[in-house]
Amino acid sequence: MEVLERGLPPAQTGSNRHDADVVVGPTFRDDAAVVRPTAEGKGLVLTCDVITPIVDDPRTFGRIAAANALSDVYAMGGVPRHALNLVFFPDKKLPLHVLDEVLAGGACACAEAGAVVVGGHTVRDAEIKYGMSVTGEVELSRVWSNRNAQPGQVLVLTKALGTGLVAGARKRHRAGDIPEVVGREDLEHAIASMQRLNRVVRDIAVGHPVTAATDVTGFGLLGHLGNITRGSQVRARVRLSALPALPGALGAARHGIVPGGTRANLEFLQTTGAVEITEECPEEQVWLAADAQTSGGLLLCVDADASNALMAQLRAAGQVAEVVGELEAVTPERPVVIVVEP
């Protein structure tokens, strides 16, 4: 706990507006945190996520990792309340002020989310990794489970795709492996997207007939959508031309600069028969749809007649909002699958 507490600012243990829920925090090194239970009619949302650095700046890395973990709560329609740091740190290789910065970035994201960091755990490791275990709450009457999608709904995506393509191409260029296909400004766009919480999207979407959602992260858009189609026993149709792309992402894919995780995503989907890709689909857009994201947006399943109002409100709040496909009923001739079209 000693190393962990170096990065916990006072606001996380004494002045946060949710401190009334914290019975025991990390101040006196208790063995665990104690928080008051949620209100009647609400369920606990429990999740955790850990990633390796995708950027060089430690504070930015901490913020991205925290946003990535918090996103799982938003994807259930919930609100994050408390978080525990999960730290793997090579203290023989890196100075502790790097850890301070990582934890400060995580604390900053949690403060924006209205969540309290109540402790955590630190492990020595050969490579730095960071993430969070997050507890939130959600109204039981409107949980956005993968089981709740319905035929006739449309799919609204709330962040541009391509963080894996952009970061991977930039990293390989800096290592001298490839020419500069993705520029610094392209990477900055991706970093800004990864730091942005899905809080605003969740807060707006709960006022609309959204029944299911997922956050688009490591398995890519198609992989996470596959969880919804299987859970809800529906078909999906995705239009590649409608997918919003981060600057530089499609350029990287056109040059064949595709990360291993993205390749693995598409291979798995094709091997398991989860997707049907029409022949006319541009290869670079297929890679975009399968790209392994970090702290991506939410994919919302919403009634078609309510989608325009939802997107208008999201865009007015400065969020990305694009209809990228729709859900269809399953029949004996039309089984559960994601049909990918140009």
Q: How do the helices and strands follow one another from N- to C-terminus?
A: HHEEEHEHEEEHHHEHEHHEHEHEE
According to CATH, what is the class of the largest domain? Alpha Beta
User: Roughly how many Å apart are the termini?
Assistant: 52 Å
Helix content: 25-40%
Structural class: alpha+beta
The low-confidence parts are: 1-5, 10-17
The helix count comes to 12
Overall strand count: 13
Radius of gyration, in Å, reads 20 Å
Any idea how many domains? 2
Strand content: 15-25%
Largest sheet: spatial strand order: 8-11-7-12-9-13-10
Principal-axes shape call:
globular
Biggest sheet layout: 7 strands, mixed
| Mean residue pLDDT | 93
CATH architecture of the largest domain: Alpha-Beta Complex
The CATH topology annotation of the largest domain reads as Phosphoribosyl-aminoimidazole Synthetase, Chain A, domain 2
CATH superfamily of the largest domain: PurM-like C-terminal domain
What does this structure look like?
It is a single chain. The chain has 342 residues and is an alpha+beta fold. The chain contains 12 helices and 13 strands. The chain has helices spanning 2-6, 11-14, 58-75, 96-113, 163-174, 184-195, 199-205, 220-232, 249-254, 260-271, 283-290, 307-316, and strands at 22-24, 34-35, 42-51, 79-89, 116-124, 129-139, 153-157, 210-215, 235-239, 275-277, 298-303, 322-328, 338-341. The strands form 3 sheets. A 7-stranded mixed sheet has the order 8-11-7-12-9-13-10, with helices on both faces. Strands 3-6-4-5 form a 4-stranded mixed sheet. Helix 3 runs parallel beside helix 4 (96-113). The chain is globular. The model is unreliable at 1-5 and 10-17 (pLDDT under 50).
